[in-house]
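--- STAGE predict ---
source: upstream dedup step, 1 unique chain passed
mode: sequence only
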Amino acid sequence: MTGKHNGIFFFRAHQWWNYALAPALGWAYFLLFLNTTDYRDALYQLLCIGLSFLGMAALGYFLNDWSDEASDKVANKHNITSSLSVLNKTIISILLFSIGLAPWLLFTKNNLFIFILLLETALILLYSFPPFRFKERGWGAPIMDVLYAHVLPSVLFLFLILSEVTPFFLFIVVTWKMLSGVRYYLNHIALDFHNDKLSGTKTLATQYGVLALYRWISKFIFPLEVLFVTAFFLLSLFYTPYVIPVALFLLFGTIFIEQILTTTTTASFFVYNFSRITIDDFYQKVFPIASLIGLVYLENKFFILLIGHLLLFHSLGYAIWLLVKGVFLVIYRLPYKKIVSLIVNYTFYYFRKVVLCNNEQQARKNQYAEYAAYQSKLQSDLTKRKNGRVAVVNINQDKYTETFIKGMVHNLPFETHQLYGGKLPTFSLNEGDFISDNKLLKAWVRFVTLLLGKSEDYFLKKSILNYLNRNEIDVVLAEFGLVGVSMSDICREAGIPLVVHFHGYDAYHSQVLQENREAYKQMFIYSSAIIAVSKEMKEQLIYLGADAHKVFYQPDFVDLSLYQHVDVSNNPPVCLAIGRFAETKSPHLTILAFHKVLAQIPEARLVMVGKDGGGELFEACHILVRALRIAHAVDFKGILPPAQIYDLMKTSRVFVQHSLTTPLHEDKEGTPVAVMEASAAGLPVVATTHAGIKDVIIPKETGILVDEFDIEAMAEAIIELLQNDTKVKQMGQAGSAYIHQHPQIAHYTNHLEKILKSAIS
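--- STAGE serialize ---
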């Protein structure tokens, strides 16, 4: 077995250790607590339970993988049995079954327990293997899975530990375990939907769709599960009066803490997603500890068991330190002034409103203007909400080179939610930080993350999921492929469609593709639509593995109302270059070409707008200009707003840009927005035959295109246009008309609206 396979096996084993073994132990601890079992009997029963559970659970996992070998191979999904012979698989299965059955044959010899284990094994075989293979038989799949994986083990523990079990108590336990088991099963097949679809495996998810599963769980199964959990604890009062303060308090305390950590506003506990939710953390982390605390109260010797469990499943020492630190911050850093201010303001407001009978404007006084503006925006948002809710996710909020994203968001006929702050967003423009910057909450996040054994970004992802579901987002639009990768699993877990918008480096840069090749493939499978800003990029994304039917050609947004045609044929010999000083735009090659222009037209000038590009090219271009002794003819404007850029376009004569494919990383542009804006404004374009430029510039009609790296040809093209008023005028008119009439550019909003609505439907 290769190292990679070992790593995957270890990861799955680690998940099983936390997600299956911990709640099983929690259930056993709690039953021991109800039965007020003494320490020696408890250890004996836990030994039987532990060996039996380990053997039967491992057998279930192993047989399930064995039966799925063929379908997993089609879906390119790792399978731990694929490298084993039939004989080896048979021996391993018998060994695991023997481990599961051994405690009841060697120690207890109870016929009921042996019958339950034999029934459990039979159900595993019926669930997984043909000709029965109930896992592909509609509702037979969750019923069989729940019986062997959840109900039967729970019933076995129940009869082993409790001296008396009433029929009603048994009914409550079985129903609770059935509901939680069905939820786990539906979660699993929802998250595995695309692999099952790819391999042709028939499940409820492929039959009814992920959205249907989400509705079943969130509207019926999950609320009923919470109801029966509560009923179980209430009935447990007949065994011991300490159940309520130990269990219910910790359950709802866990819910309260996690809601604070993962939501920017007060949210309902019943906001659901396919990822792990608060009640799962209760089952797996809090419930076992609460039960052990109860056992320690009954007999001090159980303290050793409590410490052992904490060491196995928690990082104890550091967690306690963070808890102490969090309590200190509660006292020291609470925003008392803000709390007092809110109380005073709202006291005066309601006094004026209720007692003095003032109208809204009189009651709010200085705050009324802000309130009125908010209400006006609310009415506008309600109109857009009818079309649907779109979450636009981007790395940056308002980067100067991404005005096309800002314009797109402003013109979308949807209620838009902007999320940004990284490839995994950390901030919502509508509500603020996903994880509060408050030091108290940060301390709590670190404490709970460590205590519950979470990944560092667990609460951030949970908060994003809650935000998407709470705001009833219909579709996520991810700007750039790497954002799409980060959001793909979140959207999959929330059952929300994903549309990914590629722009350039994310489709070409060799290092980006190498690091994200597998992640891209998974994202392509889940995505409802993929947008390429050039025709060449569309072919590239299909080559990388995207379904051709999902990929749409759509250049970036251009606000054509800002860039109207202007006749520049009588302007002085000014060349205009706009964009980041990035390798793909190669501003240094534009300068070298312009240097050759100066040799024939000394009065020519080059105006360069833009600055950083991720490297050191901006300063390098300043150095190059000085070395060539042409600083008098080159004007570096830096970053300018769109209105000032348009003013420069009206006073320039030619737009120049030497875009190219970088030799080391094979990076490319998409379709440069500045090229489209300049052409729309009436400037003839001199550029390279690169990526999407050839989609929006007609050679010799709206501009002149030269080969990449050919600075001599670029210089000749610039000279030709600086000396030919007629050609400048003709190309400017033709270019402006072409961009303003280009179907994808002129009707951008309509095209994007259709793509998003298609994803939603």
